[in-house]
Design goal:
This protein has 19 helices and 8 strands. It is mainly alpha-helical and about 500 residues long. Helix 3 crosses helix 6, helix 4 crosses helix 5 and helix 10 packs antiparallel against helix 11. It is elongated and about 100 Å long. The relative contact order is 0.10. It binds arginine.
Length: about 500
Amino acid sequence: MNATSSNPSNPKQNIDVSSPDSSTKPAASDGYKNDNKHAVDPQGQQMWGGRFSEATDSFVAAFTASVGFDQRFARHDIEGSIAHATMLGECGILSNDEVTTIIQGLQQVLREIESGEFNWSIALEDVHMNVESRLTDIVGAVGKKLHTGRSRNDQVATDIRLWLREETDNIIELLVRLQSGLLDLAEQHTDTIMPGFTHLQTAQPVSFGHHVLAWFEMLYRDTERLIDTRRRINQMPLGSAALAGTTFPIDRTITAALLGFEGICQNSLDAVSDRDFAIEFTSNASILMMHLSRMSEEIILWMSAQFNFVQIPDRFCTGSSIMPQKKNPDVPELVRGKAARVFGQLMTLLSLMKSQPLAYNKDNQEDKEPLFDCVDTLTGSLLAFADMLPNIVPNADAMRAATMKGYATATDLADYLVRRGVAFRDAHEVVGNAVALGIAEGVDLSDLSFEQLQQFSDAIGDDVFDYLTLEGSLAARDHLGGTAPNQVKQAVISGRARLKAFA
Ligand code: ARG
């Protein structure tokens, strides 16, 4: 399993709390004391101190800061600032020299962040003000011009969208890899027979390849949903400024083109306030995790000694410290559990947005951690599945034996009788009687003698055994979407063609 661009263990390096008390967490002991003992100097690091007469309490500074987690946006924040500065230059709002200086400064800030030497400051609240403040340290007063015609409200909305767009692409790539692996697996098992279940009772024979293609279809729709949501993620809020737009003669089409946005948010109030695109992503992620949990559950069941249908490679399992015989399906179990976490983040984001009046509210700062956790959980689960699922090894003998045990061809016998003129309800009754005899004798339908079968209906001829075999049962379901081996082969071919649409 290779790690991808996402970094679940977001390092929080070099955080300076800029107060005599160096605890970054709001400590219960000095909770809400407002004695200003731990004040952050408004003339010092804060960038909005002008109208304030009293310094912020250090607890409040730490409590309201988001830099501990939103530094994850640093690269996208700087990318957005470079585009904004470029646009300000092209519109004659900043001079070309100013723009060049600002861009070079921003590039240096990015290098400092990526090399880990950047000093993040709690007093500077969030990634946006940390970057801007360091820019001004580097390039001098001209750095203060960067924020012309924008606000942190449109800035943060832009950052989330740029970041989520990239993560969505990464997730889609993992999904395509997983689906392509499933098509290869299905292709190898168009003739590997297993019981198909309803109510977890043996129902009718299917091929293992057909079952795997059911998983493929679930994941295919999940991918379509993410691609559809990506269009709504990829709309640009920048230019909405705080809420109403800006008095400067900006050109939003320039920034949108520079940042690769396919559209521009059409209303400034909506642009800075709504997080429906993140909720939509998390909703898609929840459906996807629900699917992964179903696949997990099947693998877990099938790996039990009672089923013994499949094995997964040892690298996805662990042993028991006390029971030497155990090989536990840890990865599918954990993914099954992680689905709960993603559902929870969906509820968090819905609840966060519920009843918020227009436009931006500080509540929205709480959008980030649930979204990060959702993306990290989903990405990790897909990384594991993309390697694990295509490497399942079915135990064809055990699957076949299980299919033989469950009277899986009973419907085939009923269909045979119908083709010979028996009404389906009567045929159902006849086969029920035959199954009862099989159970009494402890044998499959195909093990009953011709005479034994014929006592239930004159319509039964000696060709009946052709229809009672598992192979005959599969081959008979020969239409689009059916389990006949040639249909499953065809479904693999069309699946590969459909998957190309995502490339
Ligand atoms: N840290 C803030 C957030 O995550 C950025 C926007 C803050 N805007 C404001 N007016 N306080 O949402």
